[in-house]
C-alpha cells in the first residue's frame, strides 16, 4: 500500500481533489462536487456547485431539484479547475454515467464511479481511459459473480410470459437505469407490446425518452383494468413487489432484475419466483479485465468486495489499496 498523492485524498465521505477544492461523489453537502452519476449513493442535494454530464444533471434535477451552480460537461470535454484538468467519459452504468479523469502535474487519476462493460441499449458504452491511478468499484468483486449473457435472461422472462397467458410477469427493477435497461433489452429482443409501469417509474422513463432512448409504448398500471394486464410485462420498484399495490395484478409471477439474483438465498428471501441476473455493475471478469486493459500503476478500490480484488491485484504485481468510503451500496428504491 502506498500513500495517496498529495493532490487527491480519500475520506470516508468522498474523494477530495485538493488543488481544485472539489469532492467526487461526496455523501454530504460540499461547496464543489464532481458527480459520476445520478444514483442516490453517489448524488445528493445540497451542494453549492456541481459538475456532471448534462444527462446526470437532468436526473439530479428530477430527483433533488436544481443546484445554485450547475456545470454541464459533455463526454470527452475537459474543464480546468485551478490547474486540474477534469473530463468525463462514459461508464456504461446508467444514462449519463461517467468516469471522471483528473490530470494534474503530469499524473492522471480515473474515478470510475459505478461501471459495466456489457452492451446496454439504454446508455453510452464504457470507454477505456488510460491512467496512472485507477479508482474502481468492486460491487461484484468475487469470482462467484459472473453474470450470464443478458439476452439469455430476457429470453427467460419472455418464456415465462408465454407460459403464463392468464397472468402477468411483474419485474422489480430500480427506478434509475435498471427499469429502462430491461425495457430496452426487451425491445431489442423483438418484444414490442405495451409495457406497463408502476407510477414511481414513469417520470424517469420519460426523461430517458427526452434523451433519445426509445423505450417503445409504455402505459401506467394506474387506471388500467385488471383484464388488460393479463399476458403483460409490468415493471415496478423492488419495494412494490410485496406491497398491497401488487395485489390488484392478475396472478403475477414475481421477477427481479439484479446482479444479486446470482445469490439464490436473496431471491428466496424476497419471494422472487423468476430471478433475472441483469446487472448494471461489472462482474468479476469485467473488473479484472478492465484493470488489465487500463494497465494503471496503482488501483484503489472504493467499495464492495474489496479483499478479493486487492488479493487479485497482489497476485498480478499491481499495487492496490482499499478506500473504505461510506454509503456506497446498490441503490434500493424501498
Automatic annotation (TrEMBL):
Keywords: Exonuclease, Hydrolase, Ligase, Nuclease. Its EC number is 3.1.-.-. It comes from the Bacteria. It is an enzyme of class 3 (hydrolase). One of its GO terms (molecular function) is ligase activity. NCBIfam families: Xnuc_lig_assoc. This is Ligase-associated DNA damage response exonuclease.
